[in-house]
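Notebook B, p. 112. Complex prediction, attempt 2.
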Amino acid sequence: MDFLNAIVALANFVLIPAISYGSQLAIGALGVTLIYGILRFSNFAHGDSMAFGAMVTILVTWWMQSLGVSIHPLPTALLALPFGIAATSLMVLTTDRVVYRFYRRVKAKPIVFVMASIGVMFIMNGIVRFIIGPGDQRFADGARFIMKARDFKEMTGLREGLAFKTSQGITIIAAVLIVALLFWFLNHTRTGKSMRAFSDNEDLALLSGINPERVVMVTWIIVAALITIAGVLYGLDKSFKPFTYFQLLLPIFASAIVGGLGNPLGAIAGGFVIAFSEVTVTYAWKKIAVYLLPDALEPSGLAQLLSTDYKFAVSFVILIVVLLFKPTGLFKGQSV
Amino acid sequence: MADPFLIGDGMTGGYGKNGPDILHDCTISVEKGEIAVIVGPNGAGKSTGMKAVFGMLNLRQGSVKLGGEDITKLSPQARVRKGMGFVPQTHNIFGSMSVEENLEMGGFIRTDDISETIEQVYELFPILREKRLQAAGELSGGQRQQVAVGRALMTKPSVLMLDEPTAGVSPIVMDELFDRIIEVARTGISILMVEQNARQALEIADKGYVLVQGANAHTGTGKELLADPEVRQSFLGG
């Protein structure tokens, strides 16, 4: 029984949160990796573009809620998502047109692109705070739980409860669907293959008659969809606050780099590596240790390796280790 | 005498807008279904000469004509659409993509059914059919060259230009590649190629150009050049 309780506690406090957080990171990192592979720069505006997409979705959600539109038990935000994606696509295509296209024309070095993207980041940062404010925003509605901790306890008679939030369920399902769809697109459609070809060998792609501007446009639209979805899922799961999205930049980049920049499969793996590391290192293991270890060995402290305040340090450490020992990432990507 | 099928006539120019001239009044041409080979010492401008024909550098003087049409002002991409295929010396495949995807990308500009052309490439290079689902970057040097040539053939070009197709492959593979190139020429496609292995290349050439310092030094049929004592002494090692 103790063993079962330990497993349930592990699932409740580590596995489920890490899987849903990992899914959010993976979707975010896919965007970073696509931009790196095709536009060949690290997009620092990624986190704040994510906030922009989430913001538009939230505004549309509020509007829908005020009209009484609802898809209970699912959150209304899912209904507002297409609007968010459309607005974000428009936004990233506009920034590409007014900022990045110029640097592409003059064949600027990647570092120049990175600096330009930091500029875009600050502007996006300001726009989002100006429109929706810097504070916390709640927009989740619908059923909060698929499985409540108390119901689980009653059902199984175990001492530990297992809570499974609707937002977590949606996140995991969405991640699986998105990854399947993206890989199908990249591997089986003409446009997807032309994107891979462009990423692999730009000169030869040009020689083969692949239109670079079209590849860039399709990439931005896909990235806009990915970041809006990731941003909304994160907001549903935790809450929406512009500064948190800026902070997400670090774990997202860490995920993309750990997996191998430019490699979509790596981005997904990287997302889960970072999420699991962050959650396991900051989790207080005492509860589980009590179930599994004999009484004499019961830890006196919380058995927490790192306070949650330091969770970003985890991404940093993993990033440094990977860059030192395997600069191309776990999967074969480009070295940074 | 009628104009040759493809001719770069009196080409003078270099890389960039103000780069020094590399080619000096250089003329290169190839007839329909024939093989023309450009040879010469290192740094003679062999590859540059071919790139000039393909529109990859600024010509200050001279013109390029394909099938009687002046294409001097066209970009390389536009020349591909006019029926020119180009196989660069390096980075000539999509390494992370499968052999079949490489061929599909080669035929990207075509709007008609490309499966028949893929089939023809597989008939020409049977090994590629076997490896069609394998990443092209994992193949051997000779097989990668076959992928590169196959990719260029996907647009059904009337002229195929090869920049040192046998660089870095073993002599046996080289012979095989040359055989395949002859086969391609027999289907009516003109071949223009730059080669380091001058002797073997001239043996299969209908026409040979020896370039020295960006200018035509000797021109003739492959046999004539092989027999020319001066060419033999200077470029073929006696």
